[in-house]
Amino acid sequence: MKLSLKVLNQSTIVSAFLHLKLIICFIIFSFSLIAQKGTAQIIGSLLNQNQEPIGFSTVALFDSDSVLKHGAISELNGNFILENVTSGVYTLVIKNIEYSPFSIPNLKVVENEVNKLGAITLEKASTNMDEVVVTGKRELLEVHPDKIVLNVANSINASGRNGLEVMRSAPGVIIDPDNNIILQGKSGVRIFINGRPSRLSGGDLATFLQSMQSDNIEAIEVITNPGAKYEAEGNGGIINIRLKNNVNLGYNGNLTHSSSIGKEPRMSNGLTFNYGKDKLGITANLTRFDNVFSRAFLDNRQQEGFEVNLLNTDRSIQQGYNFSTSITYTINKKHSVNFSSGAVLTDGDFTVKANTDIYRESTPVIDQLLISKTLTDLNSDNLNYNLNHQWKLSESSSLSTDLSYGRFRKGTRIYQPNDYYEAGGTVKIGEVNNGFDTDTNIDLYSVKTDYEKTFDKFNISAGFKYYQVETVNDFIVSNVVENEYFVDESRSNIFNYTEQVAAAYLNSKFSFSKNLKANVGIRVENTASQGILESSVATENDHVIRNYTNFFPNVGLAYTRGRSDFNIGYGKRIARPNYEQLNPFEQKESELFIFKGNPFLSPSYTTNYQLTYSFDKALVISNTYSVTEGYFATINETDGAVAYFVPQNMQSTTNYGFSISYPVQIAKWWEASYFATYNRRTYDGDFEQATIDLDVNIYSGRSQNSFKLPLDLTMDVSVFYNSPWIWRGSVEVGAYSGVDIGLKKMFLKDKLQVILNANDVFNGYTHYTYTGEYGGMTMQGIRSFDNQRFGISLTYKFGNQQIKSRKRRGGLDDELNRIAD
To answer: Which of 95, 331, 447, 713, by CA, is between 20 and 30 Å from 763?
Structure first.
């Protein structure tokens, strides 16, 4: 087949660019005229005796009673800023494990003034660094008004799992039977890696997450209402996966091995190396993974006079390498650069066996039996590169610029024989043998810049981003006769999808008084996209072009009274369809189960409201309400015994949510955190073959427990429950629960860590049941996954582990975490 790639109208994009620049300039000018009453700021920078910047130092402000009132960590370029400081006389204390403590007594702070301390030179400490040990522990689960953080590095139960499995442990997150991610009842969740968005979706995203190992993950951040600085993409919010990147002063690293057994074995081996000296910091990680996944499902459908029973079992083998590296260089006290890259190389073999009994409802006996065995060979390369430049313009302003390129290549070869038999299963009455060759090429180009400026009365941040995604999906269908492949041009196609987004944002923080603060932001995004279908068969939907501009406001208000904090948030989000959802040609799981894209699928929009109360920085209660217009639902369309799965826009869905969390120290040897949610979801849609009107109440709860046992053993126990919920916007999935247990022990002077864990001990979330009824069709079924697993993880640390890490924050971590932003 011939490929002719068309491009978007460049004049349209240039016009949109100019439009965005005018808008953002106007907004910045308008905000610059505003002068609100605010509290004071303290600004400075830290240098060593060679006039080189000192990062990751603790800067603390104490009152006359030696009570810690404010704190910050100096950035890599040495800058630090203390915001929202009330008037008074303080003592400023600066600590860094490599330098002698530095203090400024009787520092007078006047309201609405910026105290510029200038450059502060620290003297080298005489302490022998080989004898210094930095200790500290973060809570396994941190709940903030704007996000929830699951500290994976502190989780025993997370050890030995892949990224998709770990994500299931995050509060409010559900992984549906299609491996899609649902957050607090909402789909359309956007995945970020180290603060940068992943452009993969659907099965490609699931495969990528399964290639990540928990031993390389520092934390998972769940952000339900992101601010204007974040891309507006993702109706369900953002989940940011922070990878480990501990660049130490010196060198060190670790060797890891993890293996587990369930129905199938899984194993990974990894090496991490860190090096830091003077201005240079390097980290590199290489992991080899060998995973086997299995699942089975039994599906019963009654549609258009037929009853279809499907028994499906599949087994997939995924092997490959995951490599990442990061290099940071501090040029001088004003400039630093970072280059990071990542590569995931995967080879997979999939085998799917399906037996389908076909009845006519008028007769109680089997009319036909369909037996198919699908063999798939898959290989994919996922590469990404990012160059970042940090520029300290002045003591109160900075500019950050990122250039990124991503490259994804996937080749899939499928052989799918379909044999029809009479009821007894011995007399063959026909066969249809298909071959599918699919090549997917995705290229991503991105540039963004972020500017921050602190004024006397408030601070402001603004930025611009442009990205372009080019996707080419070559789909070749063959009829297979006696092991010879004959291309069927009528069923083959090339689908090109290009998306260009130009965005700008403006955000400002105000302090109206000591207790009242506001955060106001606006983001504008212009989207220009086109889908081009090239096929020998003429269709109406072969060329779809869209160009639209949207504004996404985000407002937050915070009020503090004593030990209580109140936060109110409002924001808007968007979900854009991906190339898999837009390609109108058929992709067959079998002759009776077919996925077909919808080229006229429109973006969906969500409006979020959030009210959060916290007490003593521990108890957090949150109420949320959201409305989504144009929700992506997967609707089953029927044609006799054949079921088509087609994504369509639903009129609206609503979600009312309530959550409560509380960490508690039950005893010296027992720490626990509890998290519970309630969501009421409604689904309303009128389609050609069906009307959907669903109203469901969803409850979930999670308890994380950590026990200190004799013999220096640590045990983690996680218990969770999730009530029935809605899958694909039309099918109800039954309740499930689970218990995970892990044990940890250190050996060889804490150089060797050994973890034993058991996941889904009682088989509570190995099986999912589901039911659905609409458009004259009823369905019910059960899907089973290989979730009950028992494993071991080993980590051996080498090099000097007892030196200060650039990434760590120092001895006042716990105190600083108690201070409001």
So the answer is: 713
